[in-house]
């Protein structure tokens, strides 16, 4: 194309030589000026600005490698909006990324693909469900501990401390004739204590592939590499690139690759916990005393056995009880701790990325 413009210019110069009048000379000069402007515009569109060219042109510029519009590339509308080409390498996450070549020394992107999570959690178990002595006694104003389900019954708790070792508990005496029945509360099982194993918590993002992109940058190197030697090293490809999720790849860079960066995660382990206690055998004797300080005067105390499923009630058939209540104590007959089912200690959370970068690379040759 440029040779055609050169021939046309030579023709106009010959016309200057043959011109016989000043009018013809002036007309020919103007024609030559217009021709030079036209050639400059065509060269600008065809070869791009000088600072966009890969190297000084040699020979026919617009057919040389410096031409960014060669092979119809400028007719591909999918190429619009992409960043200039970079050298892209990608490989297994366990393989170290190679260094950038001397003529493209700047790392402009590093990212990953195939994101997942590596997680393991400590084991979770539960300690025994220990037997607990009854919480105490409840004094009812209703017959047989409200056996008739009277609405809003009246009752007075006579309770031991929690935890209780069974030693004597004294409260202000509840006089005889002021209540109708006494309920001996049952034994219970204490909650199990979660026990986390010694294994460490592992909760970290992992990926199958990582990538690195290299660029020449905007500053010319002190020791430039000749264009003929600017060949992508083994494992690298020339790729256009763009943030986000753009449209189709340009025809001359059809191989699409997507990589991510800015990784975040909420990985962790669920808390170790224990279910409800069960399967214990806890049998105790709960005694009540007419007098304070658990006075063992004959005829002034009485007791009842309780267990996990039994909370006996005693009362007077004649109405109110003729016995006062001044103190209580307890002791074990049998205690076999129960158990709890453990839960938790499982991997939780997720990993994600906030942004992706798309690369369109030259087809594999």
TrEMBL record:
This is Uncharacterized protein. It comes from the Bacteria.
């Amino acid at each position: 194309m440029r040779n055609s413009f050169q021939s046309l210019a030579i023709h106009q110069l010959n016309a200057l030589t043959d011109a016989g009048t000043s009018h013809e000379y002036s007309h020919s000069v103007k024609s030559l000026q217009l021709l030079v402007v036209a050639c400059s515009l065509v060269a600008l569109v065809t070869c791009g600005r000088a600072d966009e060219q890969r190297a000084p042109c040699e020979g026919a510029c617009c057919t040389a490698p410096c031409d960014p519009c060669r092979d119809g590339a400028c007719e591909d509308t999918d190429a619009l909006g992409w960043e200039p080409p970079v050298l892209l390498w990608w490989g297994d996450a366990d393989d170290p990324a190679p260094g950038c070549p001397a003529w493209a020394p700047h790392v402009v992107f590093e990212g990953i693909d195939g994101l997942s999570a590596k997680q393991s959690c400590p084991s979770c178990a539960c300690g025994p469900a220990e037997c607990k002595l009854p919480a105490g006694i409840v004094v009812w104003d209703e017959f047989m501990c409200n056996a008739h389900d009277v609405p809003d019954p009246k009752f007075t708790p006579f309770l031991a401390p929690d935890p209780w070792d069974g030693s004597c508990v004294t409260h202000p005496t509840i006089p005889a004739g002021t209540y109708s029945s006494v309920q001996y509360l049952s034994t219970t099982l204490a909650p199990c204590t979660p026990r986390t194993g010694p294994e460490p918590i592992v909760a970290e993002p992992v990926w199958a592939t990582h990538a690195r992109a290299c660029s020449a940058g905007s500053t010319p190197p002190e020791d430039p590499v000749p264009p003929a030697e600017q060949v992508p090293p083994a494992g690298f490809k020339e790729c256009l690139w763009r943030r986000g999720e753009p449209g189709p790849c340009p025809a001359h860079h059809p191989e699409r690759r997507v990589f991510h960066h800015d990784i975040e995660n909420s990985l962790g382990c669920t808390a170790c916990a224990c279910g409800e206690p069960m399967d214990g055998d806890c049998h105790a004797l709960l005694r009540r005393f007419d007098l304070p300080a658990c006075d063992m005067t004959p005829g002034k105390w009485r007791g009842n056995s309780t267990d996990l499923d039994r909370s006996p009630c005693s009362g007077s058939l004649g109405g109110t009880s003729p016995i006062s209540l001044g103190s209580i104590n307890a002791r074990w007959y049998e205690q076999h701790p129960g158990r709890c089912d453990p839960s938790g200690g499982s991997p939780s959370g997720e990993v994600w990325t906030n942004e992706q970068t798309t690369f369109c690379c030259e087809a594999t040759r």
